[in-house]
Amino acid sequence: MDLHSGLPYWIIKNELFDYFNPLDADIETEVVIIGSGITGSLVAHELCEAKIPCVMIDKRTIATGSSAASTSQLQYEIDVPLSELIEKVGEEKAVKAYKDCLDSITDLENIYKKIKADPDFRRVPTTLLASNRKGLKLLKKEYEIRKKYDLPVDFLEKEELKEQLNLDAPGALYNETSAQMDCYKGATSILKYHLKQSNFQLFSHTLITDYEETSSGYKLLTEGGNTIKCKYVIIAAGFEAGEFLPKKVMDLLSTYVIISQPVYEDMLWKNRSLIWETKEPYLYMRTTVDNRIIVGGEDISFSNPKHRDSRLRNKIKKLENKFKKMFPEIPFVTDMAWCGTFSATKDGLPFIGAWPEKPNMLFALGYGGNGITFSMIAAQMIRNIVEDKEEPRLDVYGFNEDRI
């Protein structure tokens, strides 16, 4: 499927990882990872760190699927507010998910320190704006429940928000534990590191057309007629993983993104926080290391790539107008724009682990607006499963009966 269109900034900013290595022989390994984006890369990192032989397969040029279109914001908050998530999955699981996401930001930071790579990872605050009175009521409820569970949060009244960020909104939640990065660079830097340092193989432009279960795991068949025998298959292909799932577990959405020409640094808002809002679909924005502004939102249900792409020009104008209304003093000239497709689940949580009765096919599906932090959690969980260690987080993120 066509995952995105337009001109994603990350592929322009970075030198393309122009890696061409189709599989042209039959091979055997312990683990096969399908998907070379940020999720697959993090899974590969965890497996390589555990000295587990693994092979990665992708039908495209490396990391040019959904990861290339990500706005790469790292927050402990997920798309579903904690107070609402508690109603969906219960207090213990909801709080666990929020705390897992908080921990995963530091875990990501530590990975890049370890491999001595800089995917423009920067610690920044998050500001969640109340879009209206209803949003303000929600944020006050959110503030109380987050404080109860010692999650980092401050409440900014209307006057404080105006003073600190020069924004007009009824109020906001604020914390200083978030981060941002370059998702494409983040994925490719991990893969380049392990190609040199680990027992890791990477095959591009290789499509898996069929698979069968064996007594020892799986046998995969490629479009070129080659086979891969393995004990475990890890599906890290985002919403394209649907072809491996016996049941639909997500809905597809299209999101739209614009990025400005660089502006003078002193024109940007204080602390350069990630900004989003309570309204649905919500507007979200961040800055880049070269002082550009990324603005996204205007999400719609996905029907097909042509319908999604035909809306791009209109969505660009809407996003520009929304930003200028929020920050009229900041000059915003769109330099690039793109649209992409992503998945969402009914409870806002990812699906991680094995489908019932398929214990050797593991899924790392970081669906939703917090996909990168979910991907970090998935990578850790899959390492534990492959190493046959206890993994209590399956109770939160697994394919449990109450979720499917």
What's a quick, concise take on this entry?
With 404 residues, the chain is α/β, with parallel strands linked by helices.
Q: If you had to describe this structure to a student in words, what would you say it looks like?
A:
This protein is an alpha/beta fold and 404 residues long. The chain has two domains: 182 residues, FAD/NAD(P)-binding domain, CATH 3.50.50; 145 residues, 2-Layer Sandwich (D-Amino Acid Oxidase, Chain A, domain 2). 32% of the residues lie in helices and 27% in strands. The strands form three sheets. Strands 1, 5, 6, 7, 8, 14, 15, 16, 17 and 18 form a ten-stranded mixed beta sheet that branches. Helix 4 crosses helix 10. It is globular, with a radius of gyration of 21 Å. The protein starts with a strand and ends in a 7-residue tail after the last helix.
CATH topology label of the largest domain: FAD/NAD(P)-binding domain
Strand percentage: 25-35%
Uncertain parts: none
State the separation between the terminal residues, measured CA to CA: 24 Å
Q: CATH class of the largest domain, anyone?
A: Alpha Beta
The radius of gyration computed from the alpha-carbon positions, rounded to a whole number of angstroms, is 21 Å
Number of strands: 20
- For CATH, the homologous superfamily of the largest domain is named as FAD/NAD(P)-binding domain
**Tally of distinct domains:** 2
Q: How large is the count of helical segments?
A: 11
Structural class: alpha/beta
Overall CATH architecture of the largest domain? 3-Layer(bba) Sandwich
Q: Let me know the average pLDDT.
A: 93
* Tertiary shape: globular
Report helical residue fraction.
25-40%
The main sheet comes to: 10 strands, mixed
